[in-house]
Design brief:
3 helices; mainly alpha; 64 residues
Length: 64
């Protein structure tokens, strides 16, 4: 809830399974609201960026 992702917390605590870390994770309604705001901002910025370019580009992500 202080900005550290759950996977990093899992590794730091030495939990082998993410389920153990999640058992002790209790996000508050305020934390969830902030997360939605961040995701909404990213989504809006992405679409505004595409609109300002005039055309959309296809981006390919390759897995190595």
């Amino acid at each position: 809830m202080r900005g550290v992702d759950i996977k990093t917390i899992q590794e730091l605590l030495g939990h082998k399974d993410i389920k153990m870390t999640m058992r002790y994770s209790h996000p508050t309604p305020e934390h969830k609201r902030k997360a939605v705001e961040v995701l909404d901002s990213i989504h809006s910025n992405f679409h505004n960026s595409l609109s300002s370019q005039g055309t959309a580009r296809l981006v390919s992500i390759e897995h190595y």
